[in-house]
Amino acid sequence: MGKNNTTNSVNKFHKEISSMSLFPHPYDLTRFLEQHFTDHRNIRTLSLTGPDAYKYKRDHSHQPFKLLLNGEDHLHILYGSHYSDWVCGGQWGSMMKGLDVFMAKLRDYHVLLAVCLNGSHEPKRFKEWVRRQEQMKDNANKIFRRLKKSGLAPPASWWVPPCGLKSVLRLGLATLNTPAFCSLDDYIIDIMDFYWKNNFHGVLGGSQDFFFFKCPRLFAPPFVGPSLDFNIITREYDVKGIGKSLGLNPAEFCLLGALLGNHILTVDDLSNFHNQLVPQLKQVKKIKIIHKLVKEIVYYIRGLSSVYNYEKIGHHLFGSTSEGPDPRVKKIKESMEYYFRGTLEGSRKHRKTEPLLIAQKLHSLPEEGIEFCSHDSTNVSGCHTLSNGGNIENHLANELTPCFDEKASISVLSESEKGPSVVNNISYSNERKSPAKEESHTNEDVKTIPIPYEVRRTATERHRLGAMSSYIYQVLCYGEIKFPVILENMKPNNLELPRIYEFYRPLRQYVYAILFNLHHHKFTRKQNQETKRTLESKISGLLQKSETANLSEEDTVIASEKVKKLKKDLEKLDLPESHEVKIREWLPYNSYQKPCIVEGVEVPWGVPTVQRLWFGTSMEDKEKRIRAFMSCIRCDDVKPLLLQPHLIPPNFVFMACILRYIMVSSNYPVLKKSELDVFLLTSLQVGTYSDPSQLDAVTPRGVQLASLFMEGVEMALFANDACGAPFPLHMTLPWTFFDGVLFHMYLQKAASVQNLYELCDNDELLVSRVEIMKSVIIPELMNNEYLIRYPKRNIMGENGYYGFLEGGRSFHKSNFLHPGPFPRGKAMAKKKVTKGKPFSYNESSKKSYTKKTERSTMKKKFLEKVNDEEFAH
């Protein structure tokens, strides 16, 4: 009886997951298989923390059961979308507790889980990505209509990922010591390469494409429910057995995936063929009719004499034209090659590049630069010109192979018809292709400054390990950023809050200039121009002197030799072009029809090059990093106050910088006085509250404020990584200073109280700490008596975390600093301060703030002087 209940719960769960999938397919093969394979021979329910795991642990005690999780399709499961708190901006503390228990439970049963996150740009999947974002936008609009009408939390089927979810997961997995990596090019292909290369036992898929890669063991999204006492249940698909049951060999099974539609041969391309097979599709697309379409495609493939005769298949599918073969015929072949690329044979063939062969090709290139291309499964996605310096041959196999053109076909034909090797040439071009170019969205050509080799290499390595914001890799390699839909009111008449992505654009403009060394290039060009003018004036002076003055023959020869020497120096002078940094930003406000061309803005001081920010080891370099970050986030004028641990605890400095940016970056007030108090109070109370109770109502403004703040966290992480990570990992963890449900709870309470004293439940110590932090964030409007001078201390400790690499440029290993525990909340008053550890409020500092007469006088003056309107302005 219990087993039947479990099976029913799993069936119900998988139906719900299918309805809220982030990657829906119009003709879902999973539903067809689950309906037509009811004997459980090819599809069976499996418990990862039950008898099956016990059996594997007993038989293979020396080796864990290794599973690879497709994180992009399972974001809602990793967060826990069956709770409705995702609409409040993210209850990150609860998410981390759930992840910790989830990973610990798997480890107890000898299961090792690695998570893959999508960090690639994927130009060829741009249309598919836009369709998904349009669905997210519809969900967001429904959520705001519901909140405005009733204030109730939305159902799980309206899932929209909380702002910053991927970055929080990336940081959370690092702190939990869970293996994770981000994709570089095609996300699905990168997962399969990682799967085959590291000998995993199975894939927790989610996307329909995984059925056609010959995975030995393919699993459905896991079911984790409190009703099952945290028993992790999934479904296993025997892909080989399913193919045999359908009467299809592996190559024919790949053709089934192509004829159902994918990102290469789309469903729109196949619409006429589908309507011919099942005419009822024109009227209504019901599940039964869709299942009939799958059957008809299977019958069609069985009747083919050869699946490799693409011209004949194309003629059946698309007919013939007077102009020649239909261009969609080529897409059939590309789809077959794509599915072969994800198999074990295709992955091995892709890795068979000989480093010596590539080295010989590189030696034939000019010294001034090499153009590297980002590889794609079937085509080139673009190039950048990089400096050719250092001992490149030593790193070719690991670092440069993914950068070559892969125009050579990976064919699934017979041995006599197979194509050439994967890497057969190196392509050189002057510009990088992009979605804007491939889809003809814009004709404007955007060029960026060449990237130093060591910078691009380090960015690629850290991006692959999930140790850097994915935006940096996209900007450096593609010159573009795609911003997903978030929970904000996108209506043009919404004047309550600014558009979130546009609000943080000035911050990104500073970051673009830092990443591409805009200041250095302008300074170098200015120096060379001055040198050129000096040389030209000397040449003109010597020529004029030789023409007007009566010089002897010997003096004339000397003057002519000087002129020749100066002309040679002028020719050798390298005068770089006038560089402009322009980045394409794809925003949801125009439905991704056209990118916004955003220019990099130079930081208003002599910022060092990105090489020095990332790899420098001197004390001056460390100071420049923190100054560059403060300039990007507009905290230059309050930097000395922000870095004082007696004013703001170290784990709240990152949050204070974001709030400072929000306060000073708009022409009209964005936050009210009470809302800033709520943000600060939430950060102080995150560690002291247990899980907040269920909210009675959620307000649209509260949802937008939470999204505004969390996007600020995302952009601050972007700036922090671009500046060389002056703030270490443990100072940037969002769950240490923000909780969406707690924020909304205090926001509701702030609407019914008269002042901060009542909001803090008459806790005078809590009031004083909020006022002190507020006086640092906006010292222009606060009483300076709060800024009591104390001896300066380094919030990073004596041996701070500065830069990406240890020992300068010679070490290219990612350096993680494992954080120690941070005291939070009221417990901070009981902690003792020790040298080299993060500062917390101790008894002596508490006494200095809790003199009864001084505190009451300051409080009365503040409440009389500052009201909501004055504070906002």
Task: Give a structural overview.
It is a single chain. By secondary structure, the chain is an alpha/beta fold. Among the domains are: 1-242, 5'-nuclease (Rossmann fold, 3-Layer(aba) Sandwich), CATH 3.40.50; 247-352, no CATH class; 488-497 and 602-781, no CATH class; 518-577. Helices cover 47% and strands 6% of the residues. It has 36 helices and 13 strands. The strands form 3 sheets. Strands 1, 2, 3, 4, 5, 6, 7 and 8 form an 8-stranded mixed beta sheet that branches. Strands 11-12-13 form a 3-stranded mixed beta sheet. A two-stranded antiparallel sheet has the order 9-10. A hairpin with a 5-residue loop joins strand 7 and strand 8. The longest helix has 31 residues, at 518-548. It is globular, with a radius of gyration of 31 Å. It starts with a helix and ends with a helix. The model is unreliable at 1-10, 12-22, 353-444, 784-794, 796-802, 805-853 and 866-873 (pLDDT under 50). InterPro entries: Coact_PPARg, PIN-like_dom_sf. Residues 423-444, 833-856 are annotated as: Disordered. Residues 430-444 have a biased composition (Basic and acidic residues).
Which labels suit this protein?
single chain; Rossmann fold; alpha/beta; 873 residues; 36 helices; 8-stranded mixed sheet
